[in-house]
Amino acid sequence: MIYSRFAHIGDLFSILGTNLQALIDAQLGFDVKAEIVLVLSNRKAAYGLTRASNANPPIPTAYLAMQPWLKANPGKTRDDYDAEVARMVLKAQPDLVVLAGWMHVFGDEFLNLVSQPSSIAQELSFPADFKFPIPVINLHPALPGAFDGAHAIDRAWDVYKEGRLDKTGVMVHRVVRQVDAGEPVLIREIPFEDGESKEQYEGRLHAVEWEVIVAATNIVLRQRKEQIQG
């Protein structure tokens, strides 16, 4: 199969979309030809949707929040919502899905659908030689095994202020069913600095996040190219 556009990055995010902006800015600098083909949010007012629409060229966007969707679909479950998100992502036929601020934990249904050929893939006319699984990576503001789950930045700061921690970090990892437990793609340690405010610490951490999400995406894109060509 010949790819006129090699890497399709589906970015799922929730709030400001600053990590998304880092990816938008980096598209032309990846080691393989890449473009973002979908930006999906579970928050209607997320500014990242505006970032995507204002990109040159504009990036297609979509929005789907769980609770409104469940109310509009009586009898449906959280797994059904995950399957609907997967359907929206699969419509873009991405070679890679990047979770950059997505605050909803996916269950089996999402991961199953992006991991193997399915009736949805047939319905959406995936090429017969499309390579599954589609890798899914997630940005998490902590080191592996430390502060898994929500509010990692706040939790690390609290432990540091208690005198029991001298560094934290940022990682991008492969998404598995266990929260923040997948194989790390890239890890960066961030030491705490005496005398800095929490706001200063968060600013340093976010700057590292922007670098790490781009670098890790580049790594997985190269690996995906090798998978497809292999």
What's the short version?
The chain is an alpha/beta fold and 230 residues long.
Note the main attributes of this structure.
alpha/beta; 19% strand; globular; disordered N terminus
Description:
The protein has 230 residues and is an alpha/beta fold. It has one domain: Formyl transferase, N-terminal domain (Rossmann fold), CATH 3.40.50.170. It contains eight helices and seven strands. The chain has a seven-stranded mixed sheet. The longest helix is centred in the C-terminal third of the chain and has 32 residues. The N terminus is likely disordered.
Q: What order do the SSEs take from the amino end to the carboxyl end, as H and E?
A: EHEHEHHEHHEHEEH
Specify the structural class: alpha/beta
* Count of alpha and pi helical runs: 8
Kindly provide the radius of gyration, computed on alpha-carbon positions and rounded to a whole number of angstroms. Answer: 18 Å
Outline the secondary-structure elements.
Layout: E1 7-13, H1 18-26, E2 34-41, H2 47-54, E3 61-63, H3 66-72, H4 78-91, E4 96-99, H5 108-115, H6 119-123, E5 136-140, H7 152-161, E6 167-174, E7 184-191, H8 198-229
Parallel strand pairs: 1-2, 1-4, 2-3, 4-5
Antiparallel strand pairs: 5-6, 6-7
Helix pairs in contact: 1-8, 4-5
